[in-house]
Structure formats: C-alpha cells, structure tokens
Amino acid sequence: MRSAGWRQAVAATAAGLLLGGCAALPEMPPAVPEDIVPTLAAPSLSAEGSDQLSPDGFDAVQRMAVRIRNVGCDALSTGSGFAVDEHTLITNRHVVADSSALQVSTYDGRDLDVSAASTAALADLAVVRTEDPLPSFPRLADDDPEQGDEVTVVGYPAGGRLTVTAGSVIGTTTDPLHENLGEVLVTDAPVEPGSSGSAALDEAGDVIGVVYAKTTDGRSLLVPQSTLRGMLDDASAFTTLEPC
C-alpha cells in the first residue's frame, strides 16, 4: 500500500487522462491477422468450450480483444474492449459516448453487428451487446491483485495493431476522475490512446481490471475487477446509451 502523498501525486498527474475519447483519430487500418504484434509474451487464456488455439493458430488472448470504432456526430474515435461472454463486451463509457454508431471488429477482421450498448454512471464502464458471437472470452479473477503482481494489457492502441504489453501493479489510488468510485489500480504496463477498454490480465489470464486512463508520467489506471463484477451484478448500474 502506498502513502497518502503518493496517492495525491498520482491524482495530481491525472490531467488529460482518458485514453480513447472523442478526439478525432485516423481511419482504422484493415484488421487482418498480420496486424498482431505482441510486445511481450502474454499468458495463455482459454475460453469455455473452446480449445486453446483456434484453427488459424491464434490464441484466446488475441481472440478475446476487440477494436471499437465510435462513429460520432462530430468526430471519429477508436478504443478497445474485451468479451465477457459470447455476446457481451466490456469497454469504457468514454469510448462509446457521443456515438451515432458503434463498429466492433475482431482479431481476424470480422465486423460484428452491435445490438445494444449501455453505460455506467458511477465508473468509466460500458457494456456492448453483439448480435454475432464473439470468438473467445476470459473469466474475471476471483480477487483483485496485490502490489507487485504481474499484469498484461491486451488492446488496440490508436486503433491500430493488436498489442500486448506487460508490467506490474504499483498500488492503488483514489480515482482522480470519479471520486465516488473509490479505489482504482495503478500499474506500469504501457498504454496509449485507443487502449481504453482493454482487459488487464493476471498470470493465469484472468481479468483483474479494465484500462480507462493513464497519468502524465505514463502509469495506467484500471477499474478493478471487483468493481466491474459488482456493477455487472446490479441491473440498475447501467443505462441504455442513446445516440448523439
């Protein structure tokens, strides 16, 4: 656990935190398997009812991440997300906000039709439902990580290539963007604009948090899995996303 002074320092560096908001970004490049560029080795991750590798040779870590394109009324932006079941994605509220349409693509270049989306008022979280089945989904960890635990982030920074980065949990801090939320995780796993909504995984490949922001000194902030799990269990936590 870090000192109060350290927590204040993290909060003080929180200007410009959001990683995938509605600022205009370049057109997304074609999503093809050759775009997969892990920067570090990722944990193995298996989905229920599926083998570790799909017929095309991609593992579940690569298959569970999606790229989200927000076609807004005034701008285009991109973010990341991950599946929690066959038709449900988790991402950030600011990734899907102010949208006229959401476009979801998988690791192998498939575009999935979105049937509904909802956002949380308390935390920077959103749920997206797809009509088409998702290729793979992880499980949520049973417990939040401890300081020093390893963490792996899987997402699509800048709406480009699928990237896997690694680091460790530094500690916790009071969420600098949503004071009522409480504690969030701080890690040194590298993230960039477009990484918002990425899954953060532990050594077993279970989700321990959702990337939603970074500090100006390069640390990444995560909504803990315990917060996500509690909100998914509360039907009143999310409200339907209305088009802009």
Description:
- This protein has 244 residues and is mainly beta.
- The protein folds into 2 domains: 4-20 and 138-225, Trypsin-like serine proteases (Thrombin, subunit H, Beta Barrel), CATH 2.40.10; 59-137 and 232-239, Beta Barrel (Thrombin, subunit H), CATH 2.40.10.10.
- The chain has helices spanning 4-12, 60-64, 93-96, 225-232; strands at residues 37-38, 65-72, 76-85, 88-91, 99-105, 111-112, 114-120, 126-130, 150-155, 163-174, 183-187, 199-201, 207-214, 220-224, 238-240.
- An 8-stranded antiparallel β-sheet has the order 6-5-2-3-4-8-7-15.
- Strand 9 and strand 10 form a beta hairpin.
- It starts with a helix and ends with a strand.
- It comes from Isoptericola halotolerans.
- This is S1-C subfamily serine protease.
CATH superfamily of the largest domain: Trypsin-like serine proteases
Residue stretches low in confidence (pLDDT < 50, at least 5 long) are 1-16, 21-57
Q: What is the alpha-carbon Rg in Å?
A: 16 Å
Helix/strand-derived category reads: mainly beta
- Any idea what the shape is? globular
Characterize the largest beta sheet: strand count, sense, and whether it forms a barrel: 8 strands, antiparallel
Helix content: 10-25%
Count of extended strands: 15
CATH topology of the largest domain: Thrombin, subunit H
Strand order, main sheet: write it out. Answer: 6-5-2-3-4-8-7-15
Please identify, by name, the CATH architecture of the largest domain. Beta Barrel
Q: What portion of residues belong to β-strands?
A: 35-45%
